[in-house]
From TrEMBL, chains A, B:
The keyword DNA-binding applies. Keywords: DNA-binding, Transcription, Transcription regulation. This is Transcriptional regulator, Crp/Fnr family. It comes from Imhoffiella purpurea. GO terms for molecular function: DNA binding; DNA-binding transcription factor activity. One of its GO terms (cellular component) is cytosol.
Length: 228, 228
DNA sequence: CAAACCTGAGTGACAAAGTCACTGAGCCGA
DNA sequence: TCGGCTCAGTGACTTTGTCACTCAGGTTTG
């Protein structure tokens, strides 16, 4: 139950679809949901387990990834404020186990709603339904994209694209990230990432120092990401 | 509009969720849907294109796959009678392009419904909604499984598992399939499949002849598929 | 019937990527 | 400043993908 008017306003701002919903539905959601603060590293859903609740993210970032027996991992997508992990939702609605791991990458504030409500609202609120379907379709597309990249794209291209993407998210030439973390994004291994980075450094496209990477020739890197 | 009572009965038998739906909804669906017969090889949806309709499969098999620039491909899942390609549905509901290719593997009979109806029924019929969500969750799980296999499993294991799965589908020791087709299932290439099969033949586990494969030591193959 | 043709399969050389077992380099606290 | 920690580099090897072929078994057709 959310009573604080400031919090209620914040929720409406973060989830614009609520503005399109009926006042009735808005109240139901705010009354039945619980505001939770989850620490970084908290596991929201484990691979193969049932999903007990659907968190609507208000702040912070969630990360959904697959983990192999050997310890290698790959990021499937991130859940940002205003979104929710809809794979969770689809698992809730169909009673299936969750096929990956969902974890808080940073501290996460979320409005947590119960499966029974998720299910019920699908029938009663069109904006809610469209919100959920929009998320599902978006995730499907992201996961299909990951599969495509893994199967059909070269690792050096994927790595360069990732680095450029991160630069866009946090402008500047410096990227603070370990080789291990880059490997976990792409589903590769640290050694391989190190080798590829070293190759790019040899070509003068970037500079590697402990814990971060400085992009030097950005136009050329952009060309590589596009053409290979 | 489906009027023939035999056809109507067949549809109800193929889609049991319709029995749980109201008579009203059943009639709406049967009145607004069109029965189509699509030849083998017909493309239902191309990569990146908009989906114009949702086909509910009555007979035959559809196959959904990803195609890389180099020509390599990988099967994501198959659509069997009683199912539908829900990725299509989610694309319809969210107006996104389809992220793969959907093709008729055999001749397919389908009840085709319009996007506007798909969308509308999500609000009006609970059985329809649960049907669609069940399909989506199932597909998500399949696609996640493919990703897992591609990233974390060895090809020989995957190939053996595929062969054993095919034997279960069509009992007998003989599997009629080209190396190219096996490669397309697994997202590999013909040469590599040939090599792996040759290795298995060298170990006396199967026998290769032009166009088909005879499984010899099935218990050992099953052990391989499990343990590696 | 035999030559031409097509599809399926095998081969060898190489490149890309993952694995394993290390070594070494920077950093921080005791 | 010593020890321990995390991060990164290296070399040898395996697995998988790619390329450019050749070859083998059928079918079609002149």
């Amino acid at each position: 139950m959310i009573t604080d008017p400031t919090q209620r306003g914040r929720i409406l701002d973060t989830f614009p679809f609520l503005r399109a919903a009926s006042a009735d539905f808005r109240d139901t959601l705010l009354d039945s949901g619980t505001l939770m603060r989850l620490p970084a590293g908290h596991l929201i859903c484990q691979d193969g387990s049932e999903c007990a609740a659907l968190p609507l993210v208000l702040s912070g970032i969630g990360r959904v990834y697959k983990l192999g027996e050997n310890g290698r991992e790959i990021t499937l997508y991130r859940v940002e404020p205003g979104q929710s992990c809809v794979v969770t939702a689809s698992c809730i609605l169909s009673g299936r186990p969750f096929p990956a791991i969902a974890e808080c990458e940073t501290q996460v504030e979320a409005l947590v709603v119960r499966p029974s409500e998720v299910r019920q609202w699908m029938g009663t609120s069109t904006p809610w339904r469209e919100y959920v379907f929009g998320l599902i379709a978006g995730r499907l597309q992201e996961v299909f994209g990951v599969l495509d990249a893994v199967l059909f794209q070269r690792l050096d291209q994927r790595l360069v694209a990732l680095l450029l993407g991160m630069r866009k998210a946090a402008p500047g030439r410096d990227i603070r990230m370990t080789h291990q973390a880059l490997a976990a994004e792409l589903g590769s291994s640290r050694e391989v990432i190190s080798r590829v980075l070293k190759g790019l450094e040899g070509q003068g496209l970037l500079r590697i120092t402990r814990g971060h990477i400085e992009l030097l020739d950005i136009p050329e890197l952009e060309r590589r990401a596009r053409e290979g």
